[in-house]
Amino acid sequence: MFLSRNILRNGFKLLNNAQRMYRAALVHDYGTEITIQDVKDKNPGDHEVLIKNETAGINHADWIMRQGKYHIKPRLPFTPGGESIGIVESVGKKIKHWAEGDRVLVLKQGFTGAFAEKTIADENFDIIVKLPYSLDVELAPALSAYATAYLGMKKLVTENRGNSFLILSSQGTLGFAAMDLAQNVFEGVVFGASDCEEKLAIFREANVMSTFNWTDNKLSRNVREKTFGKGVDFVIDTVGGDVFHQGKESLKDGGHILSLGFSSLVVPQLDLLDLHRLNGSVSAVWLHGKDKKDIISAIEMISKMFDDSLLSGIKIRPYPLDEINKCYQDVQDSKFFGKAVLTMY
């Protein structure tokens, strides 16, 4: 009898443990393939929220981190991923702003933990934003890109309308977010530039004024031809490298260049004499370097803009979690011009 009870008790314990597992992507060594493994579920701490993920956004920075070349280098093994959308499954004792059943966007300040069926977010460290259920769950991972572009652009454009924008983009996510905002929120005249015809065709589908291929190194001349020799008010650069400098030379007198990233992996060096010559200025935005309240406010505002149909959205390509290595490769090879999203369903 005693033996039977022990067996039964242990059986329930094993069953309970088996039920408290979830699948997660794991990097065991930098530069190697990511594996999908079962990992033990966790209970949230006092200030933590446990989220059952629906989708997660893959960014170029995730690929760089996997190679061990990012400025943040997690201890191995680790689950990659810095942003996910999901449903709150449980909350810690001191959590007041979120409850079971809420849909939330999570930005992990450590840039790890999102590429899994579940993730834990710390309210004192990570960014957690409640989202409406009406927002497309596959589009939602693009909110951080929109917030990045919005925070950079709103200080430049303020109340002026009719400004001209040149968007430089090779990956599509940040560039298309900036284009969408420039057209539909800041009511500007938008030009798009990229490195191949397929990407330029997507810009044209969005009804930009003109498109340019920067690979001929004639970007500035071509832009000035389309702007009656003046150049543009604002250049939004997401590429870096030589493309940044081509964009800079496309500015009109007194123009401004906003740097949102370096998809080329080359950080441009700037000569201040160039800015003096152009009477120009430059600024940059890194979302995770902004004040937490500003980030949350921007994401909530962008979410409402989508809810009110003020924004067009960007192209999304979903990948099942099991295809994470293919997704990474496609991001690396720039095979898709838009937002790559992992799905957990």
Task: Please summarize what this structure is.
The chain is 32% helix and 26% strand. By secondary structure, it is of the alpha/beta class. α3 (143-157) packs across α4 (173-184).
How would you characterize the overall build of this protein?
- By secondary structure, the protein is α/β, with parallel strands linked by helices.
- It has 2 domains: 10-139 and 314-343, Alpha-Beta Complex (Quinone Oxidoreductase, Chain A, domain 1); 143-288, Rossmann fold (3-Layer(aba) Sandwich), CATH 3.40.50.
- It is 32% helix and 26% strand.
- The protein has 10 helices and 15 strands.
- It has helices spanning 2-19, 60-66, 143-157, 173-184, 197-205, 219-226, 241-248, 272-278, 292-307, 324-332, and strands at 21-26, 35-40, 48-58, 83-91, 103-107, 118-122, 127-130, 164-168, 189-194, 210-213, 232-237, 251-259, 281-284, 316-320, 339-343.
- The strands form 3 sheets. Strands 3, 4, 5, 6, 7, 14 and 15 form a 7-stranded mixed sheet that branches.
- Strand 8, helix 4 and strand 9 (189-194) form a beta-alpha-beta unit.
- The longest helix has 18 residues, at 2-19.
- The two termini are 44 Å apart.
- The model has no long low-confidence stretch (mean pLDDT 92).
Main sheet properties: 7 strands, mixed
β-sheet strand percentage? 25-35%
Helical residue percent band: 25-40%
How would you state the average pLDDT, rounded?
92
Distance between the termini: 44 Å
Number of DSSP strand runs: 15
Compressed to H and E, one letter per element, the order equals HEEEHEEEEHEHEHEHEHEHEHEHE
Shape: globular
